[in-house]
Amino acid sequence: MYYRTDLAYEANESLAQKVEGIRLNTRNFSHGEVVELEIIDDEAEKQVGKKKGKYVTYETKSLKNLSDESKNEVVSILSQAIKDVSGLGRERVLVVGLGNRNITADALGPKTLDKIKVTRQFFKAYNKEFDQDFNEVSILEPGVLGTTGIETINTIVGVVEKIKPTLLIIIDALASRKMRRLCSVIQVTDAGIEPGSGIGNMQGSLNKDTIGIKVVAIGIPTVVDTATIVNDTIEMMEEVLRDKTEDVGQIMGILSDLEYDEKHAFIKEILSPMYGESIVTPSSVDEQMEVLSDILAESINKAVHPGY
Asked: DSSP secondary structure string, 182-236?
């Protein structure tokens, strides 16, 4: 694969042929669609390039422009997805917000944490083991290696060992292979997450095998690489030209005969000497981040707290 993506269904749709070992189901709504994808064997995992597990993805044209009614329905969809992939019941939950609060496109995790209903202090203060309306929930903002000097995975493992949660929910900004999916797709999975993998800075895997407890990873793509932008622009140019002329092949030359991934690789080869591994985010990402973090926080609160 020549492109980067953290979205399992995006990686699956790029394959030239259908792969056995993948279950796929799509549900349509007036405001978007839900794609449920499950990778069930080692061969499928290898072909798709994603860990075995369940992936529930919600996609719409714009999360920022959803009506209040649609937004509430999306929150219900996501909260149910969190319950389904985790088998969530009575839990001690640790919610981790990955990313750098000072970089807007990477601040999804920390900003979502600000809106999580934290309850662990009350369970400890009143020596409670059970509450009818709330689970025991705590949050962790581990920061990034560049500012803390500590690998994210080490911080998380240390806190898990100390407070012993039974469910770990991890929030992170993701990378996509399509511009139209920036800030408009939410993925929920029990397959864990590899922090930094979308921008080529993988530190290790955070999943049930490495952490020892149930893990749910939730993410929204906020960045694409420059080659993806150029590639998508060329494809849009071809679509516009097809409506205006029959000479698309003559105008676009060899590019019109190349597959998406081949064009992406060619463009990346040209751009790399000048721009390296450049990553781009929408200009409105600061405004969008408030809406995205609201949706994620509400979904998590509704999922983990029975009486929320």
From this structure: TTTEEEEESS-B-TTGGGT-----BSHHHHSSEEEEEEEEEEEEHHHHHHHHHHH
Q: Which of 110, 127, 212 is nearest to 161 (CA)?
A: 212
Cβ proximity of 173 and 105 under 8 Å: yes
Contact at 8 Å (CB) between 106 and 180?
no
- For residue 96, give the DSSP letter: E
Indicate the length of the chain as a whole number.
Answer: 308
212-227 b/e (C-beta count within 10 Å ≥ 16 → b): eebbbbbbbbbbbbbb
The DSSP output letter for 115 is: T
Q: How far apart are CA 233 and CA 236, in angstroms?
A: 5
Question: How would you write the pLDDT of the chain (308 residues) with one tens digit per residue?
Answer: 445 688 999 999 878 678 889 999 999 999 999 999 999 999 999 999 899 999 999 999 999 999 999 999 999 999 999 999 999 999 999 999 999 999 999 999 999 999 999 999 999 999 999 999 999 999 999 998 888 999 888 999 999 999 999 999 999 999 898 889 999 999 999 999 876 554 455 567 889 988 999 999 999 999 988 777 777 777 777 777 777 777 766 666 666 667 767 777 777 777 777 766 677 888 889 999 999 999 999 999 999 999 98
Measured on CA atoms in the order 235, 226, 289, 36, is the torsion positive or negative? positive
